[in-house]
Amino acid sequence: MSKTPSDNTFQAIISHAKEYGFVFPSSEIYDGLSAVYDYGPYGSQLKKNIRDYWWMCMTQMNENIVGIDAAIFMHPTTWKASGHVDGFSDPLIDNKDSKKRYRVDHLIEGHAEKLIEKGDAAGAEKIVADMDALLANDDFDGLKKLIEDNKIHCAVSGTGNWTDIRQFNLMFSTELGSVAEDANTIYLRPETAQGIFVNFLNVQKTARMKIPFGIAQTGKAFRNEIVARQFIFRMREFEQMEMQFFIKPGTQKEWYEHWKSERMKWHLSLGITADKYRFHDHVKLAHYADAAVDIEYEFPFGFKEVEGIHSRTDFDLTRHQEFSKKKLQYFDTEINQHYVPYVIETSIGLDRMFLLILSNSYEEETINKEDGTTDSRVVLHLPARIAPNKLAILPLTKKDGLPELAKELMDECKKSFHCFYEEKDAIGKRYRRQDAIGTPFCVTIDHQTKEDGTVTIRYRDSMLQERIELKKVKELVLAHIS
RNA sequence: GCGAAAGUAGCUCAUUUGGUAGAGCACGACCUUGCCAAGGUCGGGGUGGCCGGUUCGAGCCCGGUCUUUCGCUCCA
């Protein structure tokens, strides 16, 4: 049962995902759309199972966490308050020789500092003033001319061989309103968190929550990444599972540690070994955070972030107070005081978690058979509780009344979990097909079943078989998936 | 965005220098069988990513484009 890591593993996983109906390139008949993917029959079920497991662990296992489902569209001012409008729409320029990319304002300001060093303070002041005027008008041609006229060169290549200036805006925009005259630019949310912050008081009051408490949410978010790559790891449309935990100011350190440890426990609860995970502390913090850590997993292409835990302070709620002119405060009856709560955020990418599960489960296994020959199989060791199919029900033959018995079992079990029925092909081949989609259990109905009411149950990972009573099948499977 | 490589059946890949495409597995039907990818017969499936050029003739040569992977870059 050894893993077979190789340069081809990632390619093999992508092929497997497509061949068995987990993930397809989007709009494939039109050549696909860059970095957009669709989830197929088994993929959508697996994704839903991961989401449901997260949701259950958050909202069901924690009495002080409740869920919401906020809209993707939000009032445009939301993104001014959050810092997304101003922070992430900077014009950029590339040097063609060094391939180095600069923020235009950084490049020009750097040049101005050099002028000051040379004693030309007036020249520096003028160029910065010119830049500000051009930036205010979004005059990219003028900015490029400013760079060229002042002979600003790249620090790496030393040349002035520049591309045109481009604006990279992180957020996708569209228009709300029927006609252009009263059209209002609105954005597709680049993170789900803001839907939680703006609903803070609604939730706190209606669910009668007392601090500390959390609000959980899953949903799509959209980021116009300059480069989106590596299969479903970085997509422009993706799904987040976020929980914002509201706490008393000053207690953020302990809650940050609490959630850091709780979230790692969640990952390990899926049976993934600890050596595939590591924490990565942020040195450079985002504008909203006073501490941040990534949970990284060793993908076939290296350790990469799956989840982030951020201590967001009172940044978001305070900003929304300022921009909305509405108080977003909590009255703490223990200390008889109003305050803006601090927030610890846990934010995990569902698509990344999906890829993690797929990467961790995929194995090309070589089997040594009793007669000395070897055989191979591709198996997905999916955790039973999130596998798309839980149980395959296979009559050994399609006659002698075996299909009828199998269908009775099917009817009994399918109300409780996903079952798969098949009578085609030899039994070994049917087992292997289930291995490839990660079904943890197969039961075979044979002639002996008619005599003594027992069946063979076959375990995916060990390939071992044992006879159990037909009527115990359902409870055995349930015991493994709950 | 820059650079490199690739794109032929659902998947993995052949098709030696240009002469209108094949295999294995997979898929469907039937027969034989019946506890770890069994055998047989038959069958479905490809305007060779797409567009254009050169040529009597292009999967193969040339240009463009789309998509993917890798390296830079980017990633609050």
Could you explain the architecture of this structure?
With 482 residues, the protein is of the alpha+beta class. 35% of the residues lie in helices and 26% in strands. The protein contains 16 helices and 23 strands. It has helices at residues 9-19, 41-60, 77-82, 84-87, 104-117, 121-136, 140-149, 193-197, 200-206, 252-268, 315-324, 350-361, 402-413, 427-437, 447-452, 473-481; strands spanning 23-25, 37-39, 65-67, 91-94, 101-103, 166-167, 173-176, 184-187, 213-222, 237-247, 277-281, 291-299, 302-313, 330-332, 337-339, 342-349, 362-368, 374-380, 391-395, 419-421, 441-445, 454-459, 465-469. The strands form seven sheets. Strands 3-9-10-16-13-12-11 form a seven-stranded mixed β-sheet. It is globular, with a radius of gyration of 28 Å. It starts with 8 loop residues before the first helix and ends with a helix. Mean pLDDT is 87; it is low at 1-6. The chain binds one RNA strand of 76 nucleotides through residues 7, 10-11, 14-16, 18-20, 25, 28, 30-34, 83-84, 87-88, 92, 94, 96, 99-101, 163, 166, 168, 170, 190-191, 223, 225-231, 234, 286-289, 301, 367, 369, 375-377, 394, 396-397, 425-433, 435, 444, 446, 456, 458, 463, 465.
Question: Topology, pairings included?
Answer:
Elements: H1 9-19, E1 23-25, E2 37-39, H2 41-60, E3 65-67, H3 77-82, H4 84-87, E4 91-94, E5 101-103, H5 104-117, H6 121-136, H7 140-149, E6 166-167, E7 173-176, E8 184-187, H8 193-197, H9 200-206, E9 213-222, E10 237-247, H10 252-268, E11 277-281, E12 291-299, E13 302-313, H11 315-324, E14 330-332, E15 337-339, E16 342-349, H12 350-361, E17 362-368, E18 374-380, E19 391-395, H13 402-413, E20 419-421, H14 427-437, E21 441-445, H15 447-452, E22 454-459, E23 465-469, H16 473-481
Parallel strand pairs: 3-9, 19-20, 19-21
Antiparallel strand pairs: 1-2, 4-5, 4-6, 7-8, 9-10, 10-16, 11-12, 12-13, 13-16, 14-15, 17-18, 21-22, 22-23
Helix pairs in contact: 2-12, 5-6, 6-7
The protein binds one RNA strand of 76 nucleotides through residues 7, 10-11, 14-16, 18-20, 25, 28, 30-34, 83-84, 87-88, 92, 94, 96, 99-101, 163, 166, 168, 170, 190-191, 223, 225-231, 234, 286-289, 301, 367, 369, 375-377, 394, 396-397, 425-433, 435, 444, 446, 456, 458, 463, 465.
